[in-house]
Amino acid sequence: MGVLFSRLFSTLFGKGEIRILILGLDNAGKTTLLYKLQLNQVIETVPTIGFNVETVNYNNLQLQVWDLGGQGTIRPYWRCYYPNTNAVIYVIDSTDVDRMDTAKQEMITMLQESDLKGVPLLVFANKQDMPGALSEVQVSQMLGLSLIKNRQWRIVKASAKLGEGISEGLDWLIALLRDS
Amino acid sequence: MKKHEARAPDFLSEIEKTKVLQEAKCFDASCNNPRDCIPVMCKVVYLLSKGEAFTETESTEIFFRACKLYQSSNPQIRKMLYFLLKEIRPKESEVFMITSSLSRDLSTSENSYFKASALRVMAKILDPTMLIQMERFIKVAIVDSNDNVSSAALFLGLKLCKTHLEVVKKWVTEVQEKLTSKNSTIHFHAMLLLYEMKKGDALALSKFFESMMNLSLKSPLAQTQLIRFIRFSLKTSKFETGTMTNIEKFLTDSLKRSQDMVVYEAAKTICEHSEYMQGYTITSALSVLQLFLVSSKVTTKFAGIKTLNTYAMKHASYLTDSTGEYENLLTEQNRSLATMAISTLLKLSTDSNIDKLLGMISNFMNEVSDEFKIELIESIKVLCLRMPHKHQQLNKFVGDILKDEGGLQLKKIIIDTLLQLFDSLPQAKDTILMTLAEFSEDCIYENLHLRVIHFLGEHGPNCKNPSRLIRFIYNRLILEKPSIRAAAVSALFKFSKIKELRSSVMTLIQKCLEDKDDEVRERAAFYLSRISKNDFDRPSLPIPISKLEKILAHCKNTGKGFAFDIQVTSEVKEEVKKAPLPEKVNTSLFSNIPELNALGQPLKSSNNMSLTEKNAEFVVNCVIHYFTSCQVLEFKINNTLSDVTLSGVTASLHVEGTTLEGLLRIEDGILMYPSQTIGKNSSGVSYVVIKKLSGSRKASVPTFLKYKVTEYQGDTELAMFDDEYQIENIPIELA
Q: What region holds the Clathrin/coatomer adaptor adaptin-like N-terminal domain (chain B) (predicted)?
């Protein structure tokens, strides 16, 4: 009973954490994004085997951000983390044209999961600071984002390294979550 | 509510797997509440420790759910999580999911409890890929200023020694640093780890011992363990005299320590390796052990008397003077102590007190457990051999134990002892046969029974009064089950060798022709026909049984690749006939290579395989000798050229990408013995040893000969160069 009450309490007063998943292929910049968000600095990363999870304070909101490893061996396990997710951030390496199709396939597979039904999707066309990066429009076309009808989505050009575009995307996401 | 449940007495029985799996969904919550999660985690751990079977999907599910709890930094949840992870033992294919989390605990966490726990989780679940990533963190953790962390890291190292010794060896500086730690546990673990690193190498080991002995270990556990390590090592390694002197001094000093366990280990080590010790060292070790006997603690007394018992024969001359001290122990309430004392006394006994001793033992024999009876039997055996004239009393004593109730192990050892005594004490043969015959009257262990009956058949006919034995064997025909009856028929037949008994034996066997069991009837008919043909000798096999057994064992191990062939076995037999001393065969077999001769006799040798054309420049033949642990390929190279000599001929075998060559140890799989220089128009031999591993298969392996060629014109050397020469593929068995 007490548990139920405290849950109710936390939902009412908005103290419950918002759970956000950061997904994407390996070397897309997920871990860099996570720690840029949390510590506001660029850290030296190694490929994530498994996951990182941090609580991020964003505009007085507690976000629980999960950064899952993007290597091919880990991707099948993403689905274990879908339940109770409020939003998905999909990070794209905009310079990696060759694997854009793989990124698309993985995204489609992910969005089909029932646990993620209606969950808003924010795509970061990352690495805009690098030469040869595709624009967000090109990335959007290659991913076929315009075909997504059953959820809110948005693509934002970003550079996790420089911190550009991150707040733009997150503000959109937060506003959306507040409304719902 | 939960709390009340937890106190209810049948709380545990209410924990059900399906329910718990449902409850585990609370791990997914975005904000974990310790009050929700911890009871569920406890339940999962309870189920796991109870041995509840989780299907693969279930354990995967629980593992991933549990991983999510990493988001919480609540210390209680985290504590339970580490515990849970150790219990779940995730699958190898999934364990990597927490690699990153664990390494973060190690690398960035300020919380030393988290660090230590992460290391302990790793000790349970670490896989090779994880190790590569974690290595540097572990190295740092070893020298962590927090004792918990350091101790956990050392412990992880100890675990890894079994599987990744090479990696662990790289941490030697860090571990050495920890030897000086004030914390006795760390100190102890560091020493264990260093020993594991060095134990493979005798020189490093002796240096290790030297440095450890100088360090004057403060922890008694560490010192005890060090002495044990010394004892183990002395069994296999030889140390230099200087080191031995230091070891002896160290052990003598240890005898003076205040902790019983240190003193005990030191004394035991001195007794076991007394051949390296001075007389006075041994004396002091023995007197320390004797002092144990008057200790107030039973365990100490027992340790003392047990060790004295073990080494009684070795140091009998010193110990006989103080038998009074052991006699005091006979009045002990603790029967184990008393038995050990008796056993020791028996070993040290003399003509004058033996009867008295035996009398004493009989008094409490029925209070003693089997394992101590075994101990006594051992002592009696030694005694019998020492005092053959007392064999009557001793045999009677053993016979009495045999008649009493006892487990298979005990009975088996008694029978073994009797059979050994039978071989070594000619005057006791009749008595022993009678003891065995009486035993066969009420033996409940089938295998042992068969053995006894067979033995009676083999040796009974030669004793003074064979007809008495026949009565016992005949009783078996009436009373026992088919397998024993069959054995009894065979045993009876042996007695038909004696002319006077033949007709009676025949009558007895004839009765068996009506037995209910096929085997018994057939044996009876078979033996009757042999008696009528006067054929009493054992039909001879074309090959000695021991050899046949070896070959069959080899066939069994190698499976299809090595079909049993009586032709082969008879070939082996021929070989034996030609050379009555098998060692001689080997000496000529592997000319002057002692390592190969040490392998003993081959189980089988293949036919001579020709690997080249008959008229090639170098004619190569190969014979494969099969041993239990390896195969030796013997290459005979005949150099038909008159202007070239070959030296250092080796064969290199190309097995699926890897080339087996080079001079390595047998353990590594292959060993080469290059030939001596092969002169003009002459021949030489080169050997290649391939280790055979289990689950082997046959393969046809491309082979090259490699050698150094020296060209001559007349007697002048023209040129010298390396060359190789492909010969036919060789069929060998590989892993």
A: 17-533
